[in-house]
């Protein structure tokens, strides 16, 4: 028996009742959040046109496109739902490690959307969805922890570890046997990709790897069920996952705590932007107490970042000329937006909102420096000097808001994010959003997703 065989035995043997309640709670939270960011993603750039393209192609009606409501083949539904979930960089992030650290990752926008499709397609229960996603996300988090590297790698892990999470979750929900499960993993290893260059260039293709991985996870499973064979040890074997995508990998501790703790994305984002902008955003909002400021009230805003905070978040931002993608990855734009409105939401990235003259005025008031006294890359400080002479100070000393361990959103804030995301799509009423939330919060009692999905389509 090789290491992948041992993993598959774990995946096949684990049931919902084997999960601890904290794992269940966190998994349900990621599912709730993923439904919400998918529905609000219906207004994401190019999502409507991609949806129309997939509808025109047609095919067997197996699973629902959230928000829009059309049924498509499972792999197409997984693709468009994941594309929408990633659209505003509002999805869950930062996978946890066994020693309590976190590493950059976007798992849930792929794994949860694909698993939701697989649950609907195979008439599975809420408990089965929770169990499958907990297993898949734990697998991806362990891959991430052992792989080495990070955002400066060539491959974007939204198209690598996320796809591996999705194929495990969906294989569980499709009821694959051990041989099929291994073949699906091996086929998936041959289907992973995604360039970090998309983020470097702020192009719209940044959300393609995660959508492609969701689609390929479903396709890998269907090919395995059809009898297509693959690698003998697709995770740990030579020229397999770690050799291909682990830049400085070390798998010595991969199996530590397997089956005892379930790792996953650990951040539910309060703001629709790159997580590396959140410390600066939170520092500004702490200083302003979350109250909107008018540029006429402000003399200057200085944000201090850790020396290792990435340069890309404060690179040049050309007012009125930049894309939604650049805005979401840029602290200049997001901090200016937060100062003006007290939040950063998908609606902040409409062409009208990004061209609002007060954004330009606030951008002109912003400056940045590096502060070696800050304890980590996830911390920041803000100093807002008002025209009255009053100085407002805000610090983020541990972690930005949203970290389930270090600085969690309240249950009410998570619920509010979901309802606002669903209703701001313009497709779904507040009553329907609340009813869907009630069902998702009691997901373990649901015999299927049919009622939830019916509430989240126009």
Explain what you see:
The protein is of the alpha+beta class. Helices cover 47% and strands 9% of the residues. The chain has helices at residues 3-13, 21-40, 47-57, 74-86, 108-121, 126-147, 161-174, 178-189, 197-200, 208-225, 241-245, 278-288, 324-328, 331-341, 351-354, 357-365, 411-424, 430-441, 450-455; strands spanning 63-64, 71-72, 93-96, 102-103, 265-267, 298-305, 366-370, 380-386, 391-396. Strands 7-6-8-9 form a four-stranded mixed beta sheet. Strands 4-3-5 form a three-stranded antiparallel beta sheet, covered by helices on one side. Helix 5 runs parallel beside helix 10 and helix 17 packs across helix 18.
Strand line-up of the largest beta sheet: 7-6-8-9
| CATH architecture assignment of the largest domain | Orthogonal Bundle
- Percent helix among the residues? 40-55%
Number of H- or I-type helical stretches: 19
Determine the CATH superfamily of the largest domain: 2-methylcitrate dehydratase PrpD
Q: Judging from the principal axes of the Cα atoms, what is the shape? A: globular
Estimate the strand proportion.
5-15%
The total strand number stands at: 9
Low-confidence stretches: none
Quick take:
The chain is of the alpha+beta class.
List strands and helices in order, with pairings.
Blueprint: H1 3-13, H2 21-40, H3 47-57, E1 63-64, E2 71-72, H4 74-86, E3 93-96, E4 102-103, H5 108-121, H6 126-147, H7 161-174, H8 178-189, H9 197-200, H10 208-225, H11 241-245, E5 265-267, H12 278-288, E6 298-305, H13 324-328, H14 331-341, H15 351-354, H16 357-365, E7 366-370, E8 380-386, E9 391-396, H17 411-424, H18 430-441, H19 450-455
Parallel strand pairs: 6-7
Antiparallel strand pairs: 1-2, 3-4, 3-5, 6-8, 8-9
Helix pairs in contact: 2-4, 2-5, 2-6, 2-17, 3-4, 4-5, 4-10, 5-6, 5-7, 5-10, 6-7, 7-8, 7-10, 8-10, 12-14, 14-16, 17-18
């Amino acid at each position: 028996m090789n290491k992948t065989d041992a993993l598959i035995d774990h995946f096949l043997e684990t049931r919902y009742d084997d999960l601890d309640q904290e794992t269940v709670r966190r998994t349900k939270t990621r599912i709730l959040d993923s439904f919400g960011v998918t529905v609000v993603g219906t207004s994401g750039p190019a999502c409507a046109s991609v949806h129309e393209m997939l509808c025109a192609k047609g095919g067997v009606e197996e699973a629902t496109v959230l928000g829009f409501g059309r049924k498509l083949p499972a792999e197409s539904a997984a693709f468009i739902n994941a594309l929408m979930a990633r659209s505003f960089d509002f999805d869950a992030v930062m996978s946890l490690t066994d020693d309590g650290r976190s590493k950059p990752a976007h798992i849930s926008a792929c794994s949860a959307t694909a698993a939701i499709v697989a649950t609907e397609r195979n008439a599975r229960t809420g408990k089965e969805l929770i169990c499958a996603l907990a297993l898949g996300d734990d697998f991806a988090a362990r891959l991430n922890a052992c792989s080495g590297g990070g955002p400066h790698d060539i491959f974007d892990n939204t198209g690598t570890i996320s796809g591996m999470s999705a194929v495990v979750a969906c294989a569980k929900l499709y009821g694959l046997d051990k041989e099929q499960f291994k073949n699906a993993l091996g086929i998936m290893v041959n289907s992973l990709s995604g360039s970090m260059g998309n983020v470097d260039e702020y192009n719209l293709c940044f959300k393609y790897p995660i959508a492609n991985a969701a689609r390929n996870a479903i396709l890998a499973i269907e090919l395995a069920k059809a009898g297509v064979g693959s690698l003998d040890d697709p995770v740990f074997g030579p020229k397999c996952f770690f050799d291909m995508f682990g830049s400085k990998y070390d798998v010595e501790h991969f199996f530590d705590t397997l089956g005892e703790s379930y790792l996953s994305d650990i951040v539910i984002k309060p703001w629709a932007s790159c997580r590396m902008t959140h410390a600066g955003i939170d520092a500004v909002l702490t200083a302003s107490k979350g109250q909107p400021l008018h540029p006429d009230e402000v003399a200057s805003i200085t944000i201090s970042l850790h020396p290792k905070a990435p340069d890309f978040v404060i690179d040049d931002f050309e007012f009125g000329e930049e894309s939604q993608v650049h805005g979401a990855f840029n602290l200049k734009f997001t901090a200016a937006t937060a100062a003006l409105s007290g939040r950063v939401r998908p609606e902040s990235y409409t062409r009208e909102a990004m061209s609002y003259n007060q954004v330009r005025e606030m951008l002109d008031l912003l400056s940045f420096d590096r502060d070696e006294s800050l304890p980590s890359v996830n911390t920041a400080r803000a100093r807002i000097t008002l025209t009255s002479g009053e100085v407002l100070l805000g610090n983020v000393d541990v972690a930005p808001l949203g970290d389930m361990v270090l600085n969690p959103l309240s249950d009410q804030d998570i619920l509010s994010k979901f309802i606002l995301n669903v209703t701001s799509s313009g497709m779904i009423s507040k009553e329907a959003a609340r009813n869907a939330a009630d069902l998702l919060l009691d997901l373990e009692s649901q015999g299927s997703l049919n009622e939830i999905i019916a509430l989240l389509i126009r």
